[in-house]
Amino acid sequence: MSKKYTEDNYKEWEDLYNEGKNYVEIGASFNADPSYIRKVLIQKGVATRNPVRFTEEDFLMWERLYQDGRSFDAVGKEYEVSGGYVRKILKKRGVEARSKSSFSEEDFNRWVALYNEGVSIKDSALEYKSDFRTIKKKIEPHVKIRVNGAKISKEEKEEWIDLYQYGFSINEIGKLYDISRQVVTIFLNSNDVDTSRGINMTADLIREWEEKHLGGWSIHKIAVTYGCDSSTVKSYFDKNNIEYTLREAIVPDPPTEEELKRWEQMYSERVSADKIAEIEGVDRKRIRYFLNKMGVELRTSNEAKLSKPHLLNAEPSYIQKQVIIGSLLGDGCADTRGRLIIGHSEKQVEWLEQKRDWLGELVYDNGIKRSVKNGYKIGSIKYTLNTVPNQFIKKLRAESYLSTGGRDISSLIPHVDALALAVLFGDDGHYMNRGRGSGGISTYGFSEEQNALLAEHLHTKLNIDCKVSRHKKVFEDKGKKFYYGIYIRSSGMQVMRELIAPYLPNSMKYKIGLNR
User: Which 3 state secondary structure label does DSSP give 319?
Assistant: First the structure.
C-alpha cells in the first residue's frame, strides 16, 4: 500500500463509503486514485455495492454520457463499475460503440503537440472525450512516453519542491524530469505544497492580460502579478486565440565552477539574485536554484534583499497601521510580498515625505525614489516609496485584493480613524468652493455597496455628514458607465476639517479649503 496515506485515512475512506460516497468522490477529497481506494477497501474487507442494482434511469444516463463523448471506462469509473460492464449494458440496449478511427490526423498531431508541452495523456483524453489507450497508442510512435512517477527516486521528487519554490512552474519541472505535470502536482500536494495558484477568470481579465503582454509584460510577469501559474496564462491565451511570445525554456544545466564562485561571492556581498541575473544575463530562477544546491542560505523574497528582516513579523504601531489602511484606500497599493508602495507627483513630495515619517522604520532603505514616467503622462516626474515586507500588510492585501483584479475594502473600513481618513482625503479628496464649502472623495475604484459602507462608517464613527455620489462617464466603444464616490456636505466638511487638518502639511491644506 502507498506510504502516502495512513491507517486513519483508510478508516475515513471506509466510513465515507459506508455513508454512501463513491470512490470518485472520496478520491477527490483525498487527492487519491479511485481505483486505489477501491483496492484498499476490498483488502479491508469492505463489501462493495452491487452493480446490478442500477435503475433504468441510470442506464439512460450512461447512454447520454457515452453519446456526449465519455468512454466506457470513464462512465464506469463514475458509477464504480468496470468499463466492460458499461459496454455490455449499452450494447444490449442497442448503443453502437464509437469507432476508434473517428479522430482526424489533425487531432493526432495536436495530441503529440500537447504531450510535448507537458499535458498528460489523461488530460488530452478528457479534452477530446476519448479514452487513455486510444491516445497513447496513436502518439507512442512519435514521442517518448514519460516514465511513471513511481520510477522517480524519492530524492529527485524532493528536488521538485525546491524547484517549485524557486520559481519553476509545474510544467517546467515535468519537462526537466520527462514526466507529466499531473504526477508533479500530486507529489507537491501530498507534501503540503500549495499549487493552487487559482484565479477566477473573466473576459475582462483575459483582455487585461492581453493588453499587458502587448505592452511588454512577459507571461511570467503576468502570472506572478495575478497570482497564478505561467501555464494558466498560456492556456487562456491559447483558448482565446491570443498570440504571445515565449522566452526560451530554462533548463538548469550546471554552470561552471567559476560562475558558481562568482555568484556566491556577489550574493554574500548582498547583491540580490535579480541583480546577479541581470549582470550575468541569465534568469534569476537559475541563480537561486544553483546557489541553493551549493548550500547557500537564500534570502526569501519577503526579506526584500535582507533589508530589515526583523520587521517581517513585527506588529506595526497604531500610526503605521492607519497610514497603511489609508494608503490602501487611496493612492497606495500592496504587492504579494507584503510591501506597501506609494507614488505621488512632484507637487506632492511634501505629502510623501510626511507619510515616510509616519511609517518610520518600515520604509525601505532607499527612501523616496525619483523616476521619469514612461507610460501615462510620459516624461513627468514621479516619486515613490516602498516599505519592507510585513505580514500585516500582506494580510490586508489578501483580504482586500480579489483574484479577478478588483478590490473589496469591507475589511478595511471598520479600522478607519481620523489619520487613515486624512491619508485617504489627502490622496483622493477634493474641496468644492461653493456655498459654505462641501467636498468629495474620488473612491471611483470601489463599488456602490463598498462606498455606501464607507459613507456609513464616516457618518456613525466620525460624525461626518456624507452620502454616496454617482458619476457618469461616456465611452465611445463601451457606452456610458457609472462610478461611485463620497460626497461630503458642508456641515460634514467642517467636522472633517477639524479632524484631519493637524495631519496635513501646509502644501496639502488646499484639499480642505485652507491656504487656497
Answer: helix
The three-point CA angle 210-216-222 to 5° equals: 55
pLDDT tens digit at each of 516 positions of the chain: 344 678 888 888 888 888 777 776 787 777 777 777 877 888 888 766 654 466 776 787 788 777 766 777 777 776 767 777 888 888 888 887 765 556 677 777 777 877 776 677 766 776 666 666 777 777 877 776 665 554 566 666 777 777 776 566 777 677 666 676 667 777 777 776 666 555 556 777 788 888 888 877 777 777 766 656 676 777 778 878 888 776 544 444 678 888 888 888 888 887 777 778 878 877 777 787 788 777 787 765 444 444 677 788 889 999 999 999 999 999 898 887 788 989 888 888 999 999 999 999 898 866 787 765 434 444 457 788 888 888 999 899 888 887 666 788 999 999 999 999 999 999 999 888 765 788 999 898 888 999 999 999 999 999 999 999 988 775 555 567 788 899 999 999 999 999 999 999 998 988 888 865
CATH code for the domain of 314: 3.10.28.10
Domain carrying residue 420 = 402-516
Contact (Cβ atoms closer than 8 angstroms) between residue 343 and residue 307: no
Q: Other C-beta atoms within 10 Å of 324: how many?
A: 28
**412 part of a folded domain:** yes
387 and 326 belong to one structural domain:
yes
What's the CA gap between 384 and 44, in Å, rounded? 64
Identify whether 150 is part of a domain: no
Residue 438: burial class (beta carbons within 10 Å; 0-12, 13-18, 19+): buried
What does 230-248 look like in DSSP terms, one character per residue? HHHHHHHHHHTT-----PP
* Assessment of whether the complete model's pTM goes beyond 0.85: no
- 415 in the same domain as 513: yes
Q: At what angle do helices 230-239 and 219-226 cross, to 10 degrees?
A: 110
How many structural domains compose the chain? 5
Does 490 fall in a domain?
yes
